[in-house]
Design a protein that fits this description.
Distance between the termini: 28 Å
Largest sheet: none
Shape: globular
Oligomer: single chain
Helix content: over 70%
Order of helices and strands: HHHHHHHHHHHHHHH
């Protein structure tokens, strides 16, 4: 079982859960301070739908990781011989079968939600495009991987309902309806754009470590700049959040809650920036590919 968990990189499932939560909160939490209560009630009311979306998300991730190793098995025999497939701890035939079942299971789970089958198909298609074609191409592979995470963030918006997805697919037509229904004009695609840019930059940085992908110093620089831009964009979104002035002018403990929230966010951003960019600068200055792995892990 441990080998199967390593094969699908189960630890990365935490990023799927956190990215989904971030997409939902960024899209929704832009109005009055007590809107979070409405959000929790909505998720509780749509319990079955929430479970289908989370199951589809996990299966999309697992299938993407599994197919990545299946396609790279020959290369891993040299570069990563201790991975479960090249080491023979998991056979190729069972891995192929599980890969197909994971893809089918993801699409089946997504089909229980409006727009789910379509959006899951986009995520899966982009993931397979990356695994089969784009990963070996500098810059293009990073762009496709960014689109994979951005499209999954759009898929996660289904947790709030199809009307939020409509704002992504047809923002002009749906914005007025969403404003009337939810009292917010906040664009739900802000977080998908931010996470897409961030993952593009992170993947571009990782290419500098893998000589087979012909990563360049320019790509390493652009990748770091893209990550920094995404981080600043996220902080800019926090600074312009509608709920922040509402809480600051509210009575009771709410002003203190707003201050603590902002300080916590700034602390997290500072920790991320230090862990990533201190090593990034060192790797750039000394041209040490060995440090790139630390940048990617921290990122």
């Amino acid at each position: 079982m441990l080998d199967w968990l390593r094969l699908i990189r189960a630890s990365g499932l935490a990023t799927i859960a956190s990215n989904s939560l971030a997409a939902v909160l960024t899209a929704f939490y832009a109005g009055e301070g007590d809107r979070i209560v409405w959000l929790m009630l909505r998720l509780k009311h749509n319990g079955a739908q929430t479970l289908w979306i989370l199951l589809a998300s996990f299966l999309l991730y697992a299938s993407g990781m599994l197919w990545n190793d299946l396609i790279d098995v020959d290369r891993d025999r040299t570069g990563n011989p201790r991975r479960p497939l090249p080491d023979g701890r998991i056979g190729l035939t069972p891995a192929w079968v599980v890969g197909v079942l994971a893809m089918g299971g993801a699409m089946f789970a997504a089909s229980h939600v409006d727009y789910g089958f379509f959006l899951a198909g986009v995520v899966l298609s982009l993931a397979m495009l990356y695994n089969l074609v784009a990963k070996s191409l500098p810059w293009l592979g990073s762009a496709v991987m960014g689109l994979v995470r951005a499209s999954h963030a759009c898929f996660a918006l289904l947790l709030l309902g199809p009307d939020y997805v409509q704002m992504v697919l047809a923002p002009t037509d749906a914005a007025a309806a969403a404003t009337a229904t939810h009292g917010t004009t906040h664009a739900p695609f802000v977080y998908p754009v931010i996470i897409g840019i961030y993952i593009f930059g992170l993947t571009l940085v990782s290419e500098f470590e893998e000589r087979q992908r012909r990563g360049s110093r320019l790509g390493f620089i652009v990748g770091g700049v893209a990550m920094a831009f995404a981080l600043l964009a996220a902080l800019g979104g926090l600074a312009g959040a509608d709920w922040l002035p509402h809480l600051l002018h509210a009575g009771g403990p709410w002003p203190w809650a707003a201050v603590v929230s902002v300080l916590f966010a700034l602390g997290c951003a500072a920790l991320l920036a230090w862990n990533v960019f201190s090593v990034w600068v060192e790797a750039l200055r000394n041209a040490r590919c060995a440090l790139v792995g630390r940048v990617v892990i921290a990122g």
